[in-house]
Design a protein that fits this description.
With 465 residues, this protein is an alpha/beta fold. It is 46% helix and 14% strand. The protein is built from 18 helices and twelve strands. A five-stranded mixed sheet has the order 1-12-11-7-10, sandwiched between helices. The chain has a five-stranded parallel sheet with strand order 3-2-4-5-6, sandwiched between helices. A two-stranded antiparallel sheet has the order 8-9. Helix 9 links the parallel strand 5 and strand 6. Helix 5 packs antiparallel against helix 13, helix 12 packs across helix 16 and helix 13 runs parallel beside helix 16. The protein is globular. The termini are far apart. The structure holds 5-phosphoarabinonic acid.
Length: 465
């Protein structure tokens, strides 16, 4: 077993018919499931959804470039945001030790330290620049569109500093761009300045790009076995081939969330991982679910304003923070646990005899047993309270299981788009914000939008003080 999905506690048999899902409800969707499956498979065949085939790509060019970086530089700075950073960040956090940058180089398998520049927070940029020596640093600027304000602002600043530090000619060696093959300002810069570059496949959107050079190249540079990652994704692809919802974990999970949201009012979905390493997987999932399924219109233009709000949580930390709400607050959520069977370490707790032996139950047991017991207890308590929950179990956190997990979420999300009859691959809401930023900042060609913003600014203000 590498990965398994247990949905017992989503069902009415476990939590009752008010909140649980009846088998007949799943059966009643089987025809729709087949239609969506057929549509996805034909789009895959026609090359319209190439993300499906990424597990089978040739990674030769990535491995070659990765070797040069590892030997030539001490630091690797990723500049990107949203789908252009959350994937590689999740892979780093899941598959490298928590204090990776602080470890001596040999404990980092000889790989560079890694930093992320995502936001346009001047203090964050400065902090990264303070921590690195530009002469020993390579920057991977990632933006599919090649024009995102945040990424380009960070990049232009870094580029200027680099030129100051190493000279214009040498600066090129320190920059690798990952962007569209033809479009965008970054591609123009690649052509004029001669940077090394990778391509983001045209038909793969940002949040589905973790298995393209967006995620694979940074992961390889910091020592992740990307072949194993892709093998894990391919394994999941195989598991998700069936049109029968009962045999397909991604389809089953999608169907359960869909019924829970649309019939039982579970408008929030919590991904609660019982492993610190999976924290950023939660962040990556939140973007995937929110941006793909949070939509105003169906594909034929009907206004539905749909989408479950995703929340990430970490067990056990959030048992001491969010769980009270999940247990007794509004019954408007589903909770998906991720449980890891085998941690990288097994730690035995000491036998002690203090405070009337009230702590002796811990002695001689492992910390691993404790985190598993806490996950089981939380799951049982939620179930007793009629709160729908399911569990994904990973045999361990490895490139293989993480590849499988991320691929499963991608298929689940793409498939859910069909259930809601929306397009899960666009993001008009994000684009609107990007355009308004251009207008506020006075980019040419955005005068109409600027006027719109100026009109809005004239409205009465309500402020304190
Ligand atoms: O998933 C998406 O498409 C978005 O979140 C983008 O990844 C994000 O807006 C960044 O865009 P870009 O890669 O073009 O800089």
């Amino acid at each position: 077993m590498n990965i398994s999905f247990d949905f017992t506690n989503m069902m009415s048999d476990a939590i009752g018919e008010d909140d649980g899902i009846k088998r007949s409800e799943i059966e009643s969707l089987q025809d729709k499931v087949k239609l969506i499956d057929k549509d996805l498979k034909s789009k895959r065949k026609d090359g319209i959804l190439p993300f499906f085939d990424l597990p089978y790509q040739d990674i030769g060019s990535i491995s070659k470039a990765e070797e040069e970086i590892k030997t030539g530089f001490e630091n690797f700075v990723l500049i990107g945001i949203g789908g252009s950073s959350l994937g590689p960040k999740a892979l780093h956090k899941a598959l490298n030790p928590p204090y990776y940058n602080e470890l001596p180089k040999e404990k980092r398998k000889g790989c560079p330290k890694i930093y992320f520049l995502e936001n346009v927070d001047p203090d964050s940029l400065n902090a990264v620049l303070d921590a690195i020596d530009l002469k020993k640093t390579v920057f991977n600027v990632i933006t599919k569109s090649g024009s995102t304000s945040e990424t380009m602002a960070n990049f232009l600043l870094v580029r200027e500093r680099l030129v100051e530090a190493v000279g214009k000619e040498n600066a090129k060696r320190h920059i690798i761009a990952t962007t569209d093959s033809k479009k965008g300002s970054l591609r123009r810069l690649v052509e004029t300045e001669g940077y090394k570059s990778f391509e983001v496949p045209e038909k793969v959107g940002g949040r589905f790009s973790v298995f393209t050079p967006v995620g694979l190249f940074p992961a390889a540079v910091i020592g992740v076995d990307i072949k194993q990652l892709l093998d894990g994704a391919a394994y999941m692809d195989n598991l998700c081939k069936s049109e029968n919802v009962r045999e397909n974990p991604a389809y089953m999970s999608a169907v359960l969330q869909y019924i829970a949201a649309t019939v039982r009012g579970k408008n929030i979905t919590v991904l609660m991982s019982y492993a610190d390493a999976l924290d950023e997987i939660g962040g990556w999932f939140c973007q995937l679910w929110a941006e793909s399924l949070g939509k105003k219109n169906t594909i034929d233009g009907k206004v539905i304003n749909t989408g479950q709000t995703p929340v990430k949580a970490i067990g056990t930390n959030d048992q001491h923070s969010q769980i009270q709400l999940y247990m007794e607050g509004p019954n408007d959520k589903t909770i998906t646990f991720i449980r890891v069977e085998k941690f990288r370490n097994e730690i035995l707790m000491p036998r002690v005899s203090i405070d009337n032996d009230s702590l002796s139950y811990l002695g001689g047991r492992t910390m691993n047993e404790l985190i598993h017991a806490e996950q089981t207890a939380t799951e049982l308590a939620l179930t007793k309270n009629g709160r729908p929950n399911s569990r994904i179990t990973l045999s361990e956190v490895s490139p293989y299981t993480i590849g499988a997990l991320l691929y499963m979420f991608e298929v689940q999300t793409a498939f859910s788009g069909g259930l809601y009859s929306i397009n899960p691959f666009d993001q008009p809401g994000v684009e609107e914000g990007k355009v308004l930023t251009y207008a506020v900042m006075g980019r040419s060609g955005y005068d109409e939008k600027k006027k719109e913003i100026e009109e809005m600014a004239k409205r009465a203000r309500f402020t304190i003080p």
